[in-house]
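Quick one: structure tokens for this chain, please?
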Amino acid sequence: MSKKSDLDIMHNKLIKYIEKNKMTVDGAIRILGRSMSSKSVLFGSDFHCGSLYALCSPNPEREDGLEIKPTSQQKALWEIFEKIPDKITKKPVLFVVNGEPIDGGNRRSLGRGLWTTHLGDEINDFAKCIKIIPYDNMLMTRGSPYHVDLDGTNFEEITANQLNADQYRAFGGKGKTDYQINFEVNNKIFNATHHVGFSRWWQYRTTPLAVEMVKMHFDHSKRKFHTDVMVRSHVHYYAEARFRNTMIFSTPAWKLPDPFMYKGGLPTMPDIGMVEVIVESNGHIDINPIVEDVDVTPMVKHYWLNHHNVVGTLIFYLKSSNFIVELVGN
């Protein structure tokens, strides 16, 4: 694409942004001026590619050639996913995959609930999905061993290598993934790790996050640096907590309830999406949660007056000048 075409596209986007937000000329100059020096970081997690209940590309492929057709749930997830590039503020300088890009082999259920048990298929489909996400660099953390480890092999490490993610080991080494990552953007330090305590009830969801902030505060003397933004995942919902100088949030997911989730009764629907963090050159931080409701509704089977499965006889009685209708059916 030519530079002129790129400039035309950018110009049209700027005009739409200004019109949408009803900005004044002074306001537009101020905001757009700041945005030129700001940096965007995009966080996604819990993609679980390979599950019948999770994100997949429009045309997933198995190595054995078996044709796979996405379910209605997977199609609904993809409709949200393909709009992510339109919802981020600018091209991220860094895309953080905070654990569990794939679902794994689901070995305890012998592969039930997967469209493939081949972890290579799952990695390839995750790679196909994120092709639409713009970013300059990638970092990846490690999630639950059940999903990503097999016989001592970590498949997040393989995924990171395949996607040319940046190398990272918290305490040295040559690998590309670890259980935590720490990085700096515009003089603000981020920490990300996959796991955090889960709360089933909304009013308590910030408590495990606040605990993480307090824990990091008291660990400051050992870590030797202050952490400005902390990111956690695994819980499949978005929540956010802040103290005066620190903030933390949990990331949404890309997997709907599977059979395991029904063990505790009817599960709540997860939050679907990603989180963008904008760091201005002056140190100001904006969090842009891109969280959507997935367009799936459970079926309600109707029997009352359902002409497809009710065979009946209408018997009419005339009584006091009124018609009474009885339906006798099976």
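The chain has nine helices and 15 strands.
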